[in-house]
Specification:
By secondary structure, the protein is an all-alpha fold. The protein has helices at residues 2-23, 32-49, 56-65, 69-97, 107-135, 138-149, 154-169, 177-203, 213-228, 238-248, 254-268, 273-282, 287-291, 293-296. Helix 1 (2-23) crosses helix 2 (32-49) and helix 1 packs antiparallel against helix 8.
């Protein structure tokens, strides 16, 4: 299990490199170490504070690199798009590789098998459309956004235009095809490492030691997709999705599936916690202040 945890930590280095590439048009000299600190603290904040903690990482990077918060929210948004493309690829492979014959699948799993292919297609097209518009010139994107925002009252319109201009500047990393290919390559490496970590994780438990690398990829695809989409009968969340997939797809008992799913969540997510807490302490950050970030950002953007 220690090998799995080590591989999980390696994925954070891939995230840092990807963010560094995405921020290059705005901050070409942004050091990897500062982005790593913000990444570790940001994921720790998400574990401790829930979804509002998602704002911490772009806020910290915006403050340290002297760029606008909205531009880093655009970077965060693009990161989610690239990760979603990887998840869709894994889930699509899982649908192809999984054979439901002879298995007593739940209604939730049956729903996935029946409509999963269509969902993958729709969401993949949506991601590609987003990347297409991100790759357009800033002037073209701003023109579309200005037209869409024209219905707003004047006080809101000027502020929204400023936010839109800053947001589109954060998408400048997708203007060249070579940059998009590079970001896709880093994302592919990141998820290959995640797959390797999942294989090593399953080897650590007698109940899953027999599972092949293919089984691990199928599990990861279903769980990653289930944690994003609220699936009928399954819901969202890594722990819940992992429990259902291990019990319904791979025949583990409910107790075994729940225990392994929770352990997988601890290794995959909580392993960054000691590092993030230590870095936050070294930066003099207090969690009470981080909890109020989402409220503070409604007033004005952080200054460098």
């Amino acid at each position: 299990m220690s090998v799995s945890a080590a591989l999980v930590l390696v994925t954070y280095l891939a995230r840092v490199l990807r963010w560094q590439m995405m921020i290059r048009p705005l901050a070409p000299q942004a050091p990897a170490w500062r982005i790593f600190k913000a990444t570790a603290i940001g994921f720790t904040a998400m574990i401790l504070l829930g979804r509002p903690g998602e704002l911490v990482r772009p806020w910290l990077i915006a403050r340290s690199e002297g760029v606008s918060f909205s531009s880093q929210m655009a970077t965060w948004f693009l990161e989610r798009v690239f990760d979603l493309l990887a998840v869709l690829a894994l889930f699509g492979f899982g649908l192809y590789a999984f054979d439901p014959a002879g298995r007593d699948v739940s209604p939730g799993i049956a729903w996935i098998l029946n409509v999963g292919g269509g969902l993958v297609a729709v969401m993949a097209v949506a991601c590609l459309v987003i990347l297409y518009f991100a790759g357009k010139s800033k002037e073209a994107v701003m023109g579309r956004l200005t037209d869409a925002l024209a219905i707003l009252p004047e006080p809101w319109l000027s502020r929204s235009k400023g936010f839109a201009a800053s947001f589109t500047s954060g998408m400048a990393c997708c203007r060249k095809a070579s940059d998009v290919i590079g970001l896709l390559a880093i994302t592919a490496v990141e998820w290959l490492v995640i797959c390797g970590g999942t294989v090593c994780f399953f080897r650590a438990f007698p109940a899953t030691a027999h599972m092949s690398g293919l089984d691990a990829v199928v599990y990861l695809g279903f769980v990653a997709f289930g944690s994003i989409v609220q699936i009928p009968g399954i819901g969202g969340g890594v722990q819940i999705a992992g429990t259902v997939v291990l019990s319904q797809l791979f025949g583990l008992s409910a107790a075994e599936a729940a225990g392994i799913a929770v352990a997988n969540w601890l290794v995959t997510w909580v392993s960054i916690l000691p590092i993030g807490v230590g870095l936050a302490a070294s930066e003099g950050l207090r969690w009470q202040n981080l909890r109020r970030i989402s409220q503070d950002l409604q007033g004005q953007e952080p200054q460098p």
